[in-house]
Every structure is written in C-alpha cells, then in structure tokens.
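Many introductory courses stop at the sequence. We go one step further.
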Amino acid sequence: MIGGGNHLYHPEGIDMIDFIRKKYKNEIVKNQLQLLGSVKPENIRKYTENAKAVLIPSVVENLPYTVIESMAQGQIVLASIQGGQSEIIDDEVDGFLFDHKKADSFADKLQIINSLSKENEINISKNAYNKIVNNYSYNVIYEQKLKLLNILLDSKNNYTEFPFKSVNSLTVEQKTTNLKLQTSKLLSVVIPYFNMGNYVEETIQSILKSTYRNLEIILVNDGTNEQYSIEKISELEKKYKIQVIHKKNEGLALARNDGAKVANGKFLAFLDPDDTIEPSYYEKAINVLLNKNNVHFVGCWAKYFGEGKGYWATFTTEPPYLLAHNMINSSALIYKTEAFLKSGLNDPKMLYGMEDYESVINMVKNGYKGVALPEPLWNYRVRKNSMARAFTIEKQLYLYRTIAEKHHDIFAKFSSEITSIINTNGAGISFDNPTLRYNLKSFKFINIRLSQYIIERFKKLKVLRKPMIFINKTIFAKNK
C-alpha cells in the first residue's frame, strides 16, 4: 500500500495509517500487506508496473490524481464508484468500478480483472492512456480553465447575487421604500459612547481617513458621567462637526438603536469608541452592498491592538455554524440601513452583551444575510476594562440560552447540525477567545514571554484548550 499517512480517521481518533497497522497487524507480520508510506512520484512506477491492478477504494475523492497518474501509465485501475473517480473511468472499458454498498461487488470485479486475456488487458490499458491524454492532459485542462476564466471575467458584472448555501436570502431592489434614505449613497457611522474620552478621538480620526468620503458621524452619548469624557464630547463636536445625540444611560443596545433611527444614510455602520478601522473598509463593504442585491451587511477580519495582538478570522454568516458561535465582527458591520431597521435592532434584554450577535441571528433568520471580507480591516482594541473581559461563564450561559429561546424556530430547524458541531468542537462558550490575554504574572518565577509561549502551546492542544481557558478565567485572569 502506497501512502496512507496524515489522514485522521475520525471514528478512532487516530491517523489512518496507524489504524491500518493496528487492524491488519497479522497480515503485516505475514508480509501479506506491505505499507510503503509516502513514495516520490518518480519511484511509484517500480512498485506498480508488474501489478495486475491498482486499487483506489476512496469514497471522498473529487478528481483524484492517483487515478489519473495510474491510467496515464497504462495501469488497470479498480476504483470505487462512490468517489469522483467514477467520472473518469468507464467501467470495463478503460478501468473498473466496484460499489462499496454491494457486498460482492469488489470480489466480482477483481475476479474479472484476474481472468482478463492478454489482449483485453492491452486494450483496457490503451483506453486508459488515451482517456487521460484526450481529456485530462495539462494542455486540455489548461484550455478548459482558460475558457472558463474568460467567461467569468467577461460576465463578472452580471452577477448580482451572492451564492449563499441556504436559500432563504432576500433579494431586495436597491431603491428603498424609506424616502429619507433614497437620495444618496450616504454612510451613517454611529458611535455609541459612554465614558470613553481617552479613546474616541482616535476612533473618529480613523473614520475621517476613510477612502469612502460620503459619510456622516453620529456620536450617541449614553449618559456619560465622567467629567473628562463629558468635556471631550464638546471638544469633538466643535473640532470635527459630528452630530451628537444626548440620552440617559440605557445601555449599548439602545444607544446603537437610537443612532440608527436618526441616521440619514442609505448605509449604516457601527463602531465602538475605542476601536478603529482601516481606510478602505467602508469603501470595500459598500461596493459589495451596491453590487449584491441579496447581501444586507458586510463584515471583515479583526486585528487586535492595545493589550493583545493577533487576528480574528470571520466568516460568511450562515447556519448552522452561526448558531453555535458568533462568526463575524458583529459590533463593526456595515448594513443597508433599511435592513437593519427591519430586523437588526439590538435587543436591550441582552443585558450582559451579545446584543450584536443576537442582531445578526435575527437578520439572517429573516433572510437578511451578510458576508465577511477576508481582510483585517477593523482594529479591535484589547483593554483591561472592556465588556468582553467582564464576561463570566454564568453570564455567557444566560445569554446563549436567551438567544436560543428567542430564536427557537431557527435553532430547531438546524438542531441535528448544531448537535454535531457541539459534539465535535465543544460548546460555543468554550471556544477560544484570542482577545483574552492569559495572565501568569502572579507567578513571579515565570516571565511574560515564557508565560505567553506556554499558553500558546497549550492552546494548540485540543485536549488542554478547555482546561486552560477555565484555569485562566478562575485563577490567572486579572484586570490589568
């Protein structure tokens, strides 16, 4: 047997080659089965040239090179009908196919191969070689791909729909029914603000550096009571000509909602007052919103700064994965304003957080789907007093339960998939949070570089990841 390594056999939780060694130990000892491992392409021929057939039993291949290479060498290939190789091989013409679902299929085909006359062997070998030369040679594939790429390039502006996997995405004409939002492509950027005087100017400056120039900034003062932060509002209002809304303190959810309700833009963005954006973020996001009728919000990857370093990769928001864990930068999205007002308003009952995550679930459930740009265009500040640091396990469990109960219909629809995701990866509450800086400073004999190295090594080991997160939250994590 050639190959077989570096393929996890999930039922046993071990590498496939180790599973084979264990299961067929006696056959290996008797030399009835030889495991050659990886073999360089130029050396494979010496192992196969005298073989009656090359067996490729895979059930998951798409267009397997092993089949193409073997047929190109004139080998007789016996492969399973379940894999993509069934599209290459014409059974009993240029190769042979057996069916894993039929008990005697493999033995029957092998018997046919063993009983082939020399003339039939030569004919099948020639047919196999000609099949590959005529249909799968480099030149043939190159011409086909080039033709397809040219077609796609010529028609790139004709695709007005994003290819979501699930079908309940709404296609909405660009013309809005809200007269206030019809006249321009204005972007309204809402900053919910509470005692953030030390950071908010940097946030505003990053917005003003945006390559998308048609925008307004709305700062929602959610009952700020810190003197410096109060004075900062007046300073910023004069310096940058921003719109300021003053309201009593009711929390982040209602601050976002109030800002959205006074927005004049056809497009809407939220940005927390201690975060920043890259100059191209809004322009790239709005370009997607303008050209994809069924996309209603756009996110991106996050880059951490401040007291944390690293990146958070985000993904297009589709169930069931979205229901297991937040998979997009939900606090810094760009929306079609009307879509957000219809289905994205934050729920003030989400007292401890996750109001933005719940908002995304509600939008997706109602057909207002979004995508993630695979670029780190949003800068997330990691700091000691952030809301994310104040999450306790109890609060997170409460919020996850609240979301599941509120959106019982969509959770029920994807219950089997969610169960599989949780069984495989653990509960969403235990997913590693890269914004959480693990703190071993209390142990005087461990310096910070060594402690971070230890933690990063632990995080790479799945069996130790959850215990390390628990230990950090209960023992090591401190507000710095």
